[in-house]
Design goal:
The mean pLDDT is about 85. With about 70 residues, the chain is mainly α.
Length: about 70
């Protein structure tokens, strides 16, 4: 199954199951060097940058195109 099809199928799940799936996927990944899920300072810094507009992120449609690639 292709990633776009998997995403489509996953989005059809109830919210609780999507949350469980997301947690399972995140647990399967290695954290980037120097960053831990417990690194609340980094998480807070990135959240503040997003809220302030300093780092506006990437629009979903653009990210989707990159992922579908």
């Amino acid at each position: 199954m292709t990633p776009p099809k998997l995403v489509h199928e996953a989005l059809a799940l109830p919210p609780e199951e999507r949350e469980e799936l997301a947690a399972m996927l995140l647990d399967s990944l290695e954290a980037p060097a120097g960053i831990s899920i417990d690194d609340t300072e980094e998480i807070d810094r990135r959240a503040q940058a997003a809220r302030s507009g300093e780092d506006p992120g990437v629009p979903w449609e653009e990210l989707r195109k990159r992922l579908e690639g």
